[in-house]
Amino acid sequence: MNNEELLLIQKFTKAFSTVSPEVIEQIAQIGHLEYVQKKDHFITFGQTDKRLAFVIEGLFRGYINNAGEETTLWFSDEMDLLASYNGILFNESSKITYQALEPARLFVLRYDNLKKLAKNNQAIALVIIQMLEKILGEAFQRNERFILMDAEQRYLNLLEKKPNVMARVPQKLLASYIGITPVSLSRLRARLNKKRDSK
User: Fold this and answer.
1) pLDDT of 152-192, one tens digit each?
2) How many whole angstroms separate alpha carbon 74 and alpha carbon 51?
3) Residue 125, class by beta-carbon neighbours within 10 Å (0-12 exposed, 13-18 middle, 19+ buried)?
4) What is the greatest pairwise CA distance in the chain?
5) Residue 102: is its pLDDT beyond 70?
6) How far apart, in whole angstroms, are the C-alpha atoms of residue 36 and residue 57?
7) How far apart are CA 116 and CA 124, in angstroms?
8) With bands split at pLDDT 50, 70 and 90, how would you rate the model's confidence at 199?
9) Percent of the chain residues past pLDDT 90, beyond the cut
C-alpha cells in the first residue's frame, strides 16, 4: 500500500476518531485494496457479508429488486463507508445489492479482524463504535426519507447532501431513488429551476 493510500485511510479513520499513525498502520495491515468494475456488485442480495469498505474512488448505489423492478435506495461516493448492517450486526444476509456505477477503488477489511485489533486498543474500539453509529444512522435516515419525504424533498435533500452525485447518476436511477418516473423527474427539475429563476 503506497503513501497516498495510507493518507486516504488516515483521512477516513480521522472522520470517526483521532488515531495515531501506528493505529493507521495496524488497520492498513488487516485490509486490502479492491477494485470493482462499473456495473459489478460489491455485495449482492442474499449474501452474508461482514466486510467494511471505505470508498477511495467511485460511486455506488444500493438497490432492491421487487418482482423484477429495481428501486434505488441510496448513493455512496468517495469517503463513504459501505457495509451490510445485516451482516455486520446480525450475521444475516443482505436485503440490498450494492452496485458500482463507476469503476471503483475500495479499502476493504473484515469486521471480525477489526474487532480483534480493538480488544487491546481503545482508539480502534472507538473507531468501531463510531462506524457502527454511522451505519445505523444512515439506515435510519434512509427509512425516514422514504416514509416522511415526498419526491421533491428527497430530490432537494440529495442535492444538499451530495451535490456532486447528481451529475454522475443516470436520470433513470435518480428517478428511481426519488420514487418517480424519469419524465416526472424532468418536470420536477424544470419546476424547481423556474422557481429558482423567479427569485
Assistant:
1) 999 999 899 888 888 899 999 999 999 899 999 999 999 98
2) 18
3) middle
4) 60
5) yes
6) 10
7) 10
8) low
9) 44
Residue 64 near residue 71, CB atoms below 8 Å: yes
Buried b / exposed e over 84-114, threshold 16 CB at 10 Å, is bbbbbeeeeebebbbbbbeebbbbebebebb
> What 3 state SS string does the chain have?
CCHHHHHHHHHHHHCCCCCCHHHHHHHHHHEEEEEECCCCEEECCCCCCCEEEEEEECCEEEEEEECCEEEEEEEECCCCEEECHHHHHHCCCCCCEEEECCCEEEEEEEHHHHHHHHCCCHHHHHHHHHHHHHHHHHHHHHHHHHHHCCHHHHHHHHHHHCHHHHHHCCHHHHHHHHCCCHHHHHHHHHHHHHHHHCC
The cell numbers describing 64, all together, are: 432492491
How many angstroms separate the first and last alpha carbons of the chain?
51
- Assign residue 174 a region (left: φ > 0; alpha: ψ between -120 and 50; beta: otherwise): alpha
The pLDDT score that the predictor gives to residue 92 is: 95
d(CA 113, CA 109): 7
Please give the Cα distance from 58 to 53 (Å, whole number).
12
Q: What is the pLDDT of residues 10-49, one digit of tens each?
A: 666 666 556 677 777 788 888 888 999 999 999 999 999 9
